[in-house]
Specification:
This protein is an alpha/beta fold and about 375 residues long. The chain has ten helices and 15 strands.
Length: about 375
């Protein structure tokens, strides 16, 4: 891909939220995709302050995209803003934190399956008089009755090569490397599509992704998932880095993933789970802990071996042989095809999906080697 083409794609993605919501006033409202059970739902998002009266964002590419990007860069989180969101007739209000993020948790719902598993949420930014000043539309994913299990997956070094926490590296890989470059691990797209479809096909299993990357690159990750056909929304749980001039380093992410995975397991109490991570961090230890905490709930654990060394590999395999974990398939492998074969044997994916995973994992002689 020529650098000019990469720049055009980058501008298109980074300017997309501004163009999509068309909010040209002093505030912008950005809901992220949420998730739900039949009785609870969660949605978060962010309110931004931005320069009012800036140049219009409409216009042909690349000028329109460049103006949209400029507006996006010249905005910051709005603290203390009031947001109201309505789901299935139930309205909640929340106040944004110091970085402009809001969080909404509906309880006691009676959500029913619809034609689409995505349920619309009307989101409003309220003025001092309580009247809406900015509106946007969010969505939460309600697992359909056909779903068999929930997939909880890491992103960094599990779905894509290292670089997800480095926005500059990730954007270079995504937009300026040739389109054939392997930004994902071979076979990942087809494997995750197979898991989403389930053992009988068309299951619509919830796909939830946890990452240490900041929310500020949500839109880039969204584009990455779309580019590689990774299904399920995506619903992502990223970190709030909270960078300011007074605190220029990311906040510590103590128990970030542990609390999120436990929260998801509690929300989907009636469904088993498939857990996917990598050997480079603490995913194996965390998932072994989840098996002990939620006995009988974990259908399989897949750990991508990213070359952490023989000692680390032995330690991970020992986790899988623990007194509780022995009842749970616990596979450490650098091969997505091997994971898919195991999943097919367990009935988690259709046997016919193996051919698609193998084709997706086949080496492409025209592809550049990934940047780590």
């Amino acid at each position: 891909m020529a650098e000019g083409g990469g720049l055009r794609r980058l501008l298109r993605v980074l300017g997309r939220p501004v163009r999509r919501f068309g909010q040209a006033g002093p505030y912008a409202l950005r809901p992220y995709r949420g998730y739900a059970s039949d009785s609870e739902a969660f949605l978060m998002g962010r309110v931004f302050r931005q320069l009012a009266g800036a140049t219009a964002i409409e216009g042909p590419e690349p000028a329109g995209n460049l103006r949209a990007l400029g507006r996006r860069l010249l905005r910051w989180g709005a603290r203390g803003a009031m947001v109201r969101a309505t789901l299935d007739g139930h309205a909640l209000t929340a106040e944004t934190d110091r970085d402009g993020y809001f969080r909404l948790h509906w309880r006691g719902l009676a959500l029913r399956p619809d034609a689409s598993p995505w349920h619309r949420v009307a989101v409003e930014l309220l003025g001092r008089d309580g009247a809406p000043t900015v509106t946007a539309e969010g969505a939460v994913y309600l697992a359909p009755p056909s779903s068999d299990f929930v997939v909880i997956s890491d992103i960094d070094d599990t779905v894509m090569h290292t670089g997800v926490a480095n926005a500059a590296v990730m954007m270079w890989q995504l937009f300026f490397k040739p389109a054939e470059s392997r930004l994902t691990f071979p076979g990942v797209g087809a494997f995750y599509r197979a898991l989403h479809e389930g053992g009988a096909g068309a299951a619509g299993n919830p796909m939830l992704f946890v990452s240490r990357a900041p929310w500020s690159i949500y839109d880039v990750l969204e584009a990455f998932f779309t580019l590689h056909g990774i299904p399920g929304g995506p619903v992502m749980f990223l970190r709030e880095w909270g960078l300011t001039l007074q605190s220029p380093l990311p906040r510590r992410a103590r128990d970030h993933k542990r609390s999120l995975v436990a929260h998801i397991m509690d929300l989907y109490a009636g469904r088993p789970a498939v857990l996917i991570g990598d050997s480079g961090q603490h995913d194996p230890e965390l998932y072994a802990e989840i098996v002990r905490r939620y006995p009988g709930r974990v259908r399989a654990i897949y750990i991508r071996d990213v070359g952490a060394g023989a000692d680390r590999a032995a330690a991970i395999r020992a986790l899988g042989g623990g007194p509780v974990e022995t009842a749970v398939p616990f596979l450490l492998s650098d091969s997505t095809v091997a994971m898919a074969e195991n999943a097919a044997a367990l009935g988690l994916i259709r046997p016919e999906a193996l051919q698609a995973v193998a084709a997706d994992a086949a080496p492409d002689p025209a592809a550049d080697s990934p940047v780590g």
